[in-house]
Design a protein that fits this description.
Strand 8 and strand 9 form a beta hairpin. This protein is of the alpha/beta class. Helix 3 runs parallel beside helix 4, helix 9 (279-292) packs across helix 15 and helix 11 (329-339) runs antiparallel to helix 12 (359-366). It has a seven-stranded mixed β-sheet with strand order 9-8-11-10-12-13-14, with helices on both faces. Strands 20, 25, 26, 27, 28, 29 and 30 form a seven-stranded antiparallel β-sheet that branches. Strands 2-1-5-6-7 form a five-stranded parallel β-sheet, with helices on both faces. The chain is flat, with a radius of gyration of 31 Å. Helices cover 34% and strands 21% of the residues. It has 22 helices and 30 strands.
Length: 671
């Protein structure tokens, strides 16, 4: 259910209930931010806190407050929330801990959280175990500690479950205007996705950064992504917690290769949310997006007066989703005219220092690098912290390049501390992005250039937990084949005495397997290259059980793995990768959430290192891509049709020949 959070996040009146020193800090910080609304304090002992005379009960307030900070113990918090909801308050921040986040050690914690949610009803509640929020646009906050936010007219919103990380982020000195900071706590009632969706209704928010510990309601995140795309507000996520959640009780190679983080990565990609790996890149990416939104091209140019910096820039971009394209003829001609014959031309460009201190000549030399086919031009300048007066020319030249080209331009300090705050402010005023750190800048550019539109189709929900068993291979193949998966000709044989007769009906060479085992090779339960005449003798050397005899698939140019795991946190995660003996050796995989389209599957396959083999490597025949896609879509079809019972599917390997793609091994676990 959607809740109106803007009354609490943009309050005209605030109240502090209890809180002691924390409550006093809220009043102090509100005044420092310029809050001009009504401030009340509720405390059973009365008294004066920060010049505000306290009332002894909520009933003594003249009117229901818009935003309330509840700084009392967890038991009293529930009663206060109930009273606030009944009197029509706008919302509350629950500071107390000891709710569901403590459930592992406290049996009462879950029931307390349920009572808190019931007490709140429709009134929004942030937390519990939550610091609150800062609204730097309107000078309003419920924040019981110091912070580094300054009043802004527009800026980014940051949401995190960690109050300490939130404090640290407010202290950034990178020139990033922060409009909102919201701490989410353990989200008993109002989720992170709901909060972010509400902030999208404020047109002053330019981008949203999300520090995510867990997703929860995947459908709510999908709604957020669609709304953000409609509003033109990019989303960036720092997703933490590479847990083994999806691997619990899983037995396939897929589980060991994918894990839960693959599900998180696939979900963020599907939602069009850029994923970063650390806090510095998180801030730099938000800054870049705030200044100009996503980049229109994944191409960079680099300009520096040092060959070492040029090489460093090129190396830093290696393996990322951005590149430094070679100079065009037009660029070369313009650069030669500006720099003369003594400078070797290239991208990245080392322009030397012949034109230093002449901003007009510097701008003329840098301008060709900010061409229409370049997504972002990086002007590498490290400002000394002693006397930077001799570097003013670089600032002026950068501003001129931005003004004359109309293209995205950034001034990058290779070391974050070598970008002075006053220089950053001047660059921002002129539309140039000041970036702190070369690796951070290139990582941010990659995110800004590769943010995509969210998929309009919601991910397949994982559904309720289920008790599952291993389906024997013959039945697994039969069920998957009914959905279009190509499997070898073969026969299931219950008794070894009947193997010879079954084998005689098939074309050698043959494969013999003992079914009902997850890892047959390790158990010695697979033999290949057999004939009808040798199969009985070979069976005597294998573990006892039921058997599957099949025709051996030959002529494969590539072997692939197709796996699907039911990931409780993210949905059904399909992993595609190098199969056979290369599956764990190479760990060459990529993951998508189901359902996926045929073009999305092909795009995922193209991300694999094994793709050149599929395409035909060094004159070798190519695999039959339509057949591969048919196989993947057949597996998906089965999972979608049986989502309520499927836990795990793995095809390994899918033998890909120039004519077909056949699943020679199939693992299926379901209720």
């Amino acid at each position: 259910m959607a809740r109106d959070l803007m009354r609490i996040l943009r309050p005209s009146s605030i109240a502090v209930v209890g809180g002691g020193a924390w409550g006093a800090q809220i009043i102090r910080q509100s005044r420092r931010m310029g809050f001009t609304g009504k401030i009340d304090v509720v405390h059973p002992k009365g008294g004066v806190i920060e010049g505000v005379e306290a009332v002894r009960a909520l009933a003594d307030l003249g009117a229901p407050p818009d935003a309330v900070f509840i700084g009392v113990n967890r038991f009293a918090t529930i009663d206060i929330v109930a009273e606030l909801a009944q009197m029509g308050a706008g919302g509350a921040v629950c500071f107390a801990s000891g709710f569901s986040e403590a459930a592992g050690e406290d049996a009462e914690a879950h029931s307390l959280q349920a009572r808190l949610v019931a007490a709140a009803g429709d009134m929004p509640v942030l937390g519990p175990n939550c610091y609150g929020f800062i609204n730097a646009l309107d000078g309003a906050l419920l924040w019981p500690d110091q912070h580094g936010c300054l009043p802004v007219d527009r800026g980014v919103a940051i949401l995190t479950q960690s109050s300490n990380i939130a404090i640290n982020l407010t202290m950034q000195q990178r020139g990033l205007p922060i409009a909102y900071v919201v701490t989410c706590g353990n989200m008993a009632q109002t989720t992170q996705a709901e909060m972010a969706a509400e902030l999208l209704d404020d047109p002053r928010v330019t981008a949203i950064g999300l520090h995510i510990e867990g997703f929860g309601d995947v459908a709510a995140w999908h709604r957020l992504a669609l709304k953000a795309a409609a509003r033109g507000v990019p989303l960036v996520a720092l997703k933490v917690g590479k847990s083994d959640q999806a691997q619990v009780a899983a037995v396939s190679h897929t589980a060991s290769l994918a894990g839960s983080d693959a599900g998180a990565d696939a979900l963020l990609r599907r939602l069009g949310i850029g994923r970063v790996a650390d806090l510095p890149v998180f801030l730099e990416t938000l800054k870049l997006l705030h200044m100009g939104g996503p980049l229109d091209l994944p191409t960079l140019s680099s300009v520096s007066c040092s060959g070492g910096e040029a090489s460093l820039a090129a190396d830093t971009a290696t393996g990322r989703g951005v590149s430094f394209p070679a100079l065009t003829d037009e660029q070369r001609a313009a650069l030669k005219e500006a720099l003369g014959p003594l400078v070797a031309l290239g991208n990245p460009l080392d322009y030397h220092t012949y034109i230093w201190r002449d901003p007009d000549k510097m701008a003329a030399a840098w301008l060709p690098m900010a061409a229409a086919h370049i997504g972002l031009t990086l002007l590498i300048v490290d400002y000394p912290h002693t006397d930077a007066s001799d570097w003013i020319c670089a600032t002026e030249a950068a501003l001129a390049v931005r003004a004359q080209s109309g293209r995205p331009v950034a001034v990058v300090a290779t070391l974050p501390e070598l970008m002075p705050a006053d220089v950053a402010a001047r660059l921002i005023a002129g539309g140039v992005v000041p970036m702190h750190g070369l690796s951070e800048a290139i990582a941010a550019a990659e995110i800004a250039a590769t943010i995509t539109t969210p998929d309009s189709v919601s991910p397949l929900i994982a559904g309720a937990d289920r008790v599952v068993t291993l389906v024997d291979e013959a039945n697994a193949k039969r069920r998957l084949a009914a959905h279009g998966l190509a499997v070898p000709r073969g026969a299931a044989v219950a008794d070894a005495a009947n193997l010879g007769a079954a084998a005689a009906k098939l074309e050698a060479p043959l494969v013999l397997k003992v079914t009902g085992l997850a890892h047959k090779s390790e158990a010695g339960a697979v033999r290949v290259g057999l004939t009808a005449g040798t199969i009985d003798d070979v069976a005597q050397t294998m573990p006892r059980g039921s058997y599957l005899v099949e025709e051996m698939v030959q002529g494969a140019v590539a072997e692939l793995l197709i796996g699907v795991l039911r990931d409780p946190a993210h949905g059904f995660v399909m992993t595609l990768g190098a199969g056979g003996v290369l599956a764990e050796l190479w760990q060459d995989t990529t993951s998508v959430l189901l359902p996926a389209t045929r073009p999305q599957i092909e795009a995922a396959l193209r991300r694999l290192r094994i793709w050149p083999l599929i395409e035909g490597y060094r004159g070798k025949p190519a695999a039959h891509l339509p057949a591969i896609l048919d196989a993947v879509m057949a597996v998906q079809s089965y999972v979608v049709a049986n989502a309520a019972r499927v836990s795990e599917v793995e095809i390994n390997p899918l033998m890909c020949t120039p004519e077909t793609a056949i699943a020679v091994d199939a693992l299926l676990r379901e209720a």
